[in-house]
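Lab meeting, action items carried over

1. Structure of the two-component assembly. Owner: GW. Status: complete.
Input record:
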Amino acid sequence: MSALKESRLWRILTSPSRMMITVSAVIILISVVRQFTGINDITSPGATGATIRFTIPLLMAGLGGLWAERSGVINIGLEGMMILGTWFGAWFGYLYGPWVGIFAGAVGGALAGLLHAILTVRVGIDQAVSGLAINLLGAGTARFLSGVFFIGAGGDVNVSPQVKSIGSFTIPGLSPFLTHLGEKHILVVSDVAGVLAGFVTSINWASLFMFLALPITSWILWKTRFGLRMRFCGENPVAAESLGVNVYRTRYIALAVSGALAGLGGAYISVVVTGNYLEGQTAGRGYIGLAAVIFGNWQPAGVLAGSLLFGLTDALRVRQSTSVHALLLVVIALAAVYGISKLRKKDWKGFSINIGIAGVVLAYYLINKVVPDEFVTFFPNLTTILVLAFLSQRLRPPAMAGAPYRKGEES
Amino acid sequence: MQKKNLGRALAGAVAASLALSVVTLTGSAASAAPKKMVGIAFDLGGKEQPGFNQLAYIGFKAFLKKHPGWVEKDLQGNAADTDASRAQRLKLLIAAGANPVVVVGYSYENALKTVAKANPRVKFAIVDDNIAGAKNVEGLLFKAEQGSYLVGAAAALTSKTKSVGFIGGVNIPLIQAFEAGFKAGVAKIDSTIKYQSAYASNPPDFSGFNAPDKGHESALGMFQNGADVVYSAAGSTGQGAHKAASEQKKWSIGVDADEALYASNAPYKSAILTSALKNVDVGVASFLNDVVANKFKPDAHLFDATNGGVGFTTTGNYLPADVVAKVKALLKQIASGAIVVPTDPTTVALPQG
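Predicted assembly:
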């Protein structure tokens, strides 16, 4: 722990000015790589837009996980809640328009969240077991309901009829200007412009609406009385109860919100992204949301970072496989620079390890034209495992998340 | 004596009425006897959902229409299927009296192996697969790469930016054959055309056949990187590519069936240039007709350019007449064997787009 606190990484992560310098350096590095390889998609507005669309559902699931775990209940049922979100979103979206659909998705998820609350808080079932049950229940309920409602309406047991699309907005003036600048391929300037253009070009209203959940979560959990009490329930429910906090009620609310957020993420997929419900379209995003919570150290900004890691990987991978290959050069440069910096302290071992890594990756880069798709898909999962393995000392989950709690009993 | 006679008469009457009732019973039994039943087990996706399930069902229904003496029984797959649950589904069909049975999708391979062995009198057909050595299974195999070759040529002839893209559902040899055919068709027209490709998922993750979001982003990426025609061999994932094409005013190409006719693709119909046909319906109908005509032959049955197994569509007339003529000429060349379509995409070279 103390070694970590003295490390360069720690100092960078804890100082805003150092953080700025590091981020700028990485931007310049990526820019140089883009210029050198000619793979312009890395910092294009399109890649940014795709990243946003892949990230939002994960972010919503992650925030849902955050709400649950901060209140002291592990929520493995996020996937099932998302599935209900996709179903309710698509069906009510088909009937009453996309915005009603999104709201219905939240309601569907919240109902499953409340069920999780009843099972774990009131009945006292093991939280993991209840979560798994909700995943199975979510998938089964959606299929059953599809059979009842979709078949007569032009769908089938696993697909809903089409939902009208939600409009998107482009900031006039700014978007064309930035896009134009991005297409000039000027070092650094075009990269920043290209990425920024992605944030102002055909952004879906629903994306904006959902993203607001992040600052709102942050504000509620850290700036309001309710948030303080909720986090208290996650850290020490017995003490919270003794000080007059209604732990049961707090957890009920937190789990309903957790389910609603996951449901919103599901509705985003079915209503906004694909325009209809498809069985299995959540494809495990609920679990990835949980991974993002761990990756993000149970902090909203961290959850965003975790979701971005997965979202960005997916976006780059499905758009142009060569992008990921080009990013290897960034890895090589980082390893080399870090290795050389070790020389100052005459740390020969650190120097040779890092230069070795750079050399191996460089050799790989030169020999192969693409990074195997299998590895790219697995990369964010690998990163999460590495974070768990090497930074587990620094991770701080809510102390009593997952522990059974009965009112009036010392646990 | 009289009494005896009376008794005989009574006995005779009872016997006669019994016999009569037996006759009427058998008579009614004959008229209420189950009709000959033909069964079909679907893969994940739903029989009314566009794709090879629906195509198989179309062939199946065409047979039923021609043979009114037959009734049908169908069972649908679901996402949680295992070999055991698939085998159970086949046994249910057989228990209901279905013979022959159509099995849709190679995912049934293991289930069918055991069920076919245990029920030697039932005749099966399996789509996209073959069970070598089984005496009662016909494997309906399609040269999908040939249909992809045709739309590859159509894409190359249509592309104004001289750049095309391919989206595969899952990175498995079955789908790689589609890519190889498409790529070869493009290269046949112009080997300087730029080419991009992406797969939505990698095995054992099969979500790539069911991920319109990934299809949408993939196609958007390809369009934004210069392509103006994208071909998706990816099940429902292709729907996302059609959406992207209609948003970007570019072209998208469908697969398996005429995707321009799908209800779920209705909003994007005007962006669907053509579809590569893999006529599963032809295969299914051929199997059923063979069984009825006592011409059933086990083992692999290949459907390709020579017997209407593959093709392409012109719905919407977005392909100009000269392009259609050229592609039809290629279809003839494939049928005659003058063109051999590859199944490995790495054997065809096109510049990276």
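2. GW to write a short summary for the group page. Key points so far: Chain A has two domains: 42-296, 320-394. The two ends of chain A are 29 Å apart (CA to CA).
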